[in-house]
Amino acid sequence: MHDLLNFYRAKKHGDVLRLIEDGIDINKKYETIQGELFKLYIPKTLDMITGKLPLITAHSDTVFFEQPVDFIIEESELGTRISSADQMVGIGGDCRNGCYLVSQIMRSAFWDNFIFAIFDLEEVGGVGAATMPYQSIISNNVSYLIGLDCYARDYIAVYDNTETSLIDNIISNFEDKEVTRGYFTDVVVLAEKYKKSPIVLSIGYYNQHTQNEYVIYEDLEECYKTIIRFANLDLDEIRENVL
After folding, report:
1. Among 194, 195, 222, 227, which is least packed by CB within 10 angstroms?
2. What is the pTM of this model?
3. Which CATH superfamily includes the segment(s) 2-232?
């Protein structure tokens, strides 16, 4: 849990990137493409000619001008509840939870099952994703988009341009999850630009964008398990482009 709290304390986009990469031989595992407001991590095991992987996105910014320093960690009916000890500052689980999850997947046996993208300035209209120069790696080698940016637990959010076959696959393989309607985040911007199918997963934060925001640690662990389940899905039948 200590590592997670460090993500909440991080002040800037670059600080979050350093936490994600800490202890990982990034140059050995990934090709990276970086701009001021984004960074892509492409596994070196990806076959650039025939390979396609889901793209997982998270954003480093929060709506708060300051980051929490101290935390209240207590047991609740929902599980282990984490909140900021400063009543004037929210915890930043939206979307630092997503960045933390990316770091954990990168350290797992499933590190090369996904392409990863971390964006800045999502909270002001998806600026990082919108201003990122066109990336052929996304156009040619991404099958669909997974955003780590939905509140609570056990939601998989879909959109009007989410491929029907992907939705059907989710319904068939994630009976324990609730399929719901998505809202704005970086995958919405990328889906329009690259004609890829977007979904968003719950990552365990509540009361987002308020000083009363909190995180349930067990919900974060459940999202990790959900991501691994996506890594194991056989999605060969899914068309990569939204028609």
Report:
1. 195
2. 0.95
3. Zn peptidases (3.40.630.10)
